[in-house]
Amino acid sequence: MNVSTVKRSLHATDRHVGNRVRMRRKMQGMTQEKLADALGLTFQQVHNYEKGTNRIWASRLQHIASIQQVPISFFFEDAPGQWSILDEPCDYVSGFLATSDGLALAKGYRHIENAKLRQSIVALLKQIAGEDEPEQVTGRII
Predict the structure, then answer these.
(1) 3-state class of 71 per DSSP?
(2) Angle between helices 12-27 and 43-51 in degrees, nearest 10
(3) How many CB atoms lie within 10 A of CB 141?
(4) Which residues make Cβ contacts (< 8 Å) with residue 106, sequence separation at least 6?
(5) What averages of pLDDT result for each successive group of 10 residues across the chain (142 residues)?
(6) Distances in Å between the alpha carbon of 17 and those of 33, 53, 111, 123, 137?
(7) How many CA atoms lie within 13 A of 8 on its CB side?
(8) Is the pTM of this model over 0.85?
């Protein structure tokens, strides 16, 4: 089999790092175009990095970390690999926060000061997702 004819498969770490770049960019309210301009790239290249279809060189990742004001280790937190001490990696969390809906939900939830209201929201989400039986909420929410 000719190595040049084998389609390169996505590596889980490349996808994870790309998800973390996207998540941080969205947390900062930055567009792909703005990040691309800061890196001297096209937005399509940033898009490919975020999808994990193109690997990010170490020097480029260092530049991204500088722009996004995070340590390089940020991009590897909870990354899949042999060093993981968890039975199941938390890729779903970073993947969720990399979406606009996930980020909006997390930001909104963070601003809710009423602890009982936050608990009620979690119970409602579990019930909607079919993960839990309805919980009785004591006290008035509003």
Answers:
(1) coil
(2) 120
(3) 10
(4) 97
(5) 45 90 92 96 95 93 95 86 50 70 85 91 88 56 50
(6) 19, 11, 28, 31, 39
(7) 9
(8) no
